[in-house]
Amino acid sequence: MTLSGGSKPLPRPLREVEAYWEALRSNGDIPSKADVAPTGLECALPYMMILERLAPGVSRFRFGGQVFHDLLGMSAERVPLTVLFASSCQRDIACAVDNVFQKPAILRGDLASKAGIGRPSISAQMVLMPLKDAAGGTSQALGALYFEGRLGRVPRQFSDMRLKQTRLILDRPYSQPEPKPLAAYEPDQPGFSPKKTGRPAYTGRPRLRVIHGDKA
């Protein structure tokens, strides 16, 4: 179920990601994906995500922090964002995320996953903001998700959400080109249909890494 309305105050990791995105804006423009660096987001990295839009209504993770691995029970890289949501919510969240890319807009959401067998109820908050790609369009987005509660059996999906979209007012006219037609959309690793049991070991290599000294 999707409800329109305001979002609760953001937890610290989401505030940090949002503040980082704002700091990257030049003259009120949309930040570039090329300017996003892990050194500016060390504390928020476990909660952070970078999405890419492949086609209308289709966006997937380019990077997903530890929180997404915990929710899915596997690496989130190249997995569609909609996997985190129950089927009844997938159309609404896909449309809301499309608005982030196309309007462009900032998306905030209060999310909830109901209790089930071996799965306590959990609540979460999410923020998502557009990024410019190399071609100057907004086919990518920076965001974060923070949840509270015990996960229990994974994967977990959110079945209730309250979303708020804020359209960006830019200093100059903006035209978002449509993505190229999606000729083939086949996963090159598991993730499009998460297993219901077990928690596979993390095998993906995130594209953002924090380097301390000589250790990666």
Features:
globular; alpha+beta; seven-stranded mixed sheet; about 220 residues; Beta-Lactamase; about 25% strand; 3 helices
What is the gist of this entry?
By secondary structure, the protein is of the alpha+beta class. The protein has helices at residues 12-24, 66-72, 87-102; strands spanning 2-4, 48-55, 58-64, 105-113, 122-131, 140-148, 160-167.
According to CATH, the fold-level topology is: Beta-Lactamase
What are the secondary-structure elements, in order, as H or E? EHEEHHEEEE
Overall mean pLDDT? 82
Shape: globular
Distance between the termini: 42 Å
| Low-confidence sequence ranges | 181-207, 209-216
What is the CATH first-level class name?
Alpha Beta
DSSP summary: helix tally: 3
Strand order of the largest sheet: 1-7-4-5-6-2-3
What is the secondary structure topology, with strand pairs?
Layout: E1 2-4, H1 12-24, E2 48-55, E3 58-64, H2 66-72, H3 87-102, E4 105-113, E5 122-131, E6 140-148, E7 160-167
Parallel strand pairs: 1-7
Antiparallel strand pairs: 2-3, 2-6, 4-5, 4-7, 5-6
Can you walk through the features of this model?
- This protein has 216 residues and is an alpha+beta fold.
- It has one domain: 2-Layer Sandwich (Beta-Lactamase), CATH 3.30.450.20.
- It contains three helices and seven strands; from the N terminus they run βαββααββββ.
- It has helices at residues 12-24, 66-72, 87-102; strands at residues 2-4, 48-55, 58-64, 105-113, 122-131, 140-148, 160-167.
- The protein has a seven-stranded mixed sheet with strand order 1-7-4-5-6-2-3.
- Strand 5 (122-131) and strand 6 (140-148) form a beta hairpin.
- The chain is globular.
- The chain starts with a strand and ends in a 49-residue tail after the last strand.
- Mean pLDDT is 82; it is low at 181-207 and 209-216.
